[in-house]
Design a protein that fits this description.
Elements (H helix, E strand, L loop, with lengths): L1 H8 L6 H9 L12 H8 L5 E5 L5 H14 L8 E5 L2 H15 L9 E3 H11 L11 E2 L2 H14 L9 H13 L9 H4 L7 H14 L2 E2 L1 H14 L1 H10 L2 E4 L7 H11 L5 E5 L13 H5 L1 H4 L4 E5 L7 H11 L20 E8 H17 L7 E5 L5 H11 L3 E3 L9 H14 L4 H7 L9 H14 L3 H8 L7 H23 L2 H11 L2 H7 L5 H15 L5 H10 L12 E5 H4 L4 E6 L10 H24 L1 E15 L2 E4 L4 H4 L6 E4 L26 H12 L12 H23 L11 E4 L3 E9 L2 E6 L3 E6 L3 E3 L1
Parallel strand pairs: 1-7, 1-8, 2-3, 2-6, 4-5, 6-7, 9-14, 9-16, 10-12, 10-13, 11-12, 13-14
Antiparallel strand pairs: 14-15, 17-18, 17-21, 18-19, 19-20
This protein binds a DNA duplex (15 and 10 nucleotides) through helix 6, helix 11, helix 28 and helix 29.
Length: 788
Amino acid sequence: MSRDAAGAEAPSSTSIAARARAAVVPQAAGYLDGLNPEQRRAVEATEGPVLVLAGAGTGKTRVLTTRIAHLIAIGRARPFDILAVTFTNKAAREMKERIGALIGPAGEGMPWLGTFHAIGTKILRRHAELVGLRSDFTILGTDDQLRLLKQVIEAANIDEKRWPARGLAQAIDGWKNRGLAPEQVPAGEAGAFGFGKGGPLYAAYQERLRTLNAVDFGDLLLLCLKLWRDHPDVLASYQDRFRYILVDEYQDTNVAQYLWLRLLAQGRRNVCCVGDDDQSIYGWRGAEVDNILRFEHDFPGAVVVRLERNYRSTGHILAAASTLIARNEGRLGKTLHTEAAAGERVTVMGAWDSEEEARLLCESIESMQARGEPLSQVAVLVRISAQMREIEDRLVQLGLPYRVIGGPRFYERAEIRDALAYLRLTANPADDLAFERIINTPKRGLGDATLQALHGHARRQSVPLLQAARLIVETEELKPKPRSTLRALGQCFGRWAKLLEAQPHAEVAQTILEESGYTEMWQKERTADAAGRLENLKELVRSLEEFPDLPAFLEHISLVMDASEAEGGERVSLMTLHAAKGLEFDTVFLPGWEDGLFPNQRAIDESGRAGLEEERRLAHVGITRARKRAKISFAVNRRIHGLWSSTIPSRFIDELPESSVEVIEAPANFSYGPSRFDRQPTPFGSSYGTPGWQRAQANTAGQDRFGGQDRFGGQDRFGGGRRGGPQQIEGTLVAKSTGSPSSFAVGARIFHTKFGPGSVAAVDGNKLTVDFDKAGRKMVLDSFVQPA
DNA sequence: ATGAAGAAACGTCCG
DNA sequence: GTTTCTTCAT
């Protein structure tokens, strides 16, 4: 009551009492100020299920954080009564900060704000015994998972060449994403891998995990489900504990996460999901758009709030994005609007090939820089990372500083994983995977033969590898040299473990890395990146200091994927469209809008219309990253898998509203001459989108007059090469790929290891267009197929 | 055990 | 075409 009054008083900050109160609880006052009516509704609808459909740039995080602040401020919940789940650590961190800013230190203690995985871990550690684990279980990263799967496959006597561990990992992840334990996998699917052994292999893998006292990422959720199903009392305690549940990015939840949430939400039913069906771009990772589309059905009586007022982009940008996304059928429907000015139109520009596209794009950035635009407000968003190289090359040439966002993650780097393996093994001598990783890193002469012997010994004595090493050196099984090396290694780990009790763990880590010879290994290597690796190791030791002890650090590191990249600096940002979600920039370049690349052919092949719609959402995400300028471009020729092929402008370009788009002609360039646009599509007002045009385009493309890479050969080549060109280029390509044209004829029956049987629909040199019985139409190289 | 040559991938990527 | 992994030979 009195708190509500305080809220109402807040606007009249002239009152002495209000000012005095604000000095004590400064953030409690006025946190609702500045919310628009819809946002306010989303914040104040505290009871029962709520779905907040938050379009791009509509203040989603603000609603989420204000809602939490509100729940605490009006006394509905204490910080530890609230479960708030996000997908990424970054989002969780951000939310913590913003809540802190709203309600002060009171918000610091939100123990249940975190990623699905972090919270799952926390719950599992408390009840590990109930699902057959010890509470100090280790969490396996992707690389460990793969190594383990390889062992499982070999143990089952299956040819790992034919059935790579990667494929099994994908299948298992897929099952886990759908909440399926080995015995729940549908019979039809279980046979999909390794001559019908997919199911048993999954079971064997889980068995191995159990004996290693380890879990993978999927298990963090799956085992929670098992725990709750087998122990209703435990479930009830959590249902009771979480008075309010909030979920960020609900459109990205997979089935397992959905089940996890639903079990918890069945308690008090105060669940608030925030998301945007138009920004669901992780279907290939198991996300189910359906979860958000079905929310009202799953939670009857749900309040649905739409946030459609956009605070980020100008009118034209919003119009372009909205018109585009309106083509999707599977959506709840929102229309973004803004009070901002119309601003600049979205530009669309064609380039001759990807190299020219990169050049024009970077020159455009350069001139923006000259006009005084900060580079930190410029981003280039590509569909696939392979597009990055050409753009990077160009940026380097022009001397424009840039950074790549979402590159290899810190923890995934080899040196970090090696170092972590040392730390893991010190903390947990039973960590066999860590042992295998470092037994011969740095090289110390312990090769396959030694490892084999160790494995045998470990199995016979049923002890972990490190323990086996200590035992085996007392026998005659090994030759003298490896025996003494191994003895020394075993003693090292014993010593380090003791040291851990006596010294600060960061110092011990430093000692471990030095005494093991690991740092020395990189110091001796004089390659360009060795220095960077040593720097990363230092960073690792430094970050260790932020944790109370080594186990806490190891847990953190296994859950935290990205060491937050050093922000700031005047740099152009380069990233994939996926990595761009949640970010915004004044100017956004969107290159590579070509059918096949974007929308990506594979997405369409594998998921049909759903795939196309996801690609369209990706386009929508791309455009809505821009505050002031969105610049789309495409190339007419692009090298795909090393072969030059002609491309067609993305169908998405045609779907943009003409009134918000401006078609830019590439600046005239000496190497082309005035006739360059003769064969260039004019994106608007012509019929280039028609099948006929596309066929015409595809046909001429087969006989390109000049190969992209030779374009700069000068006017001589351009003028003279017009007639002689085609043969020359064709010849080069064929010679470089296989040496002979395809021996397959149209109509021939073939077999492809990945796609199975099919019949040849078209032949182009050594490229075949094949209609596969199962996989549909695909382009493949003839060297990958054999006669059926 | 280490380097060179050959083969295969090459879609997006969080925890 | 480029990169990365594997395999083979030394």
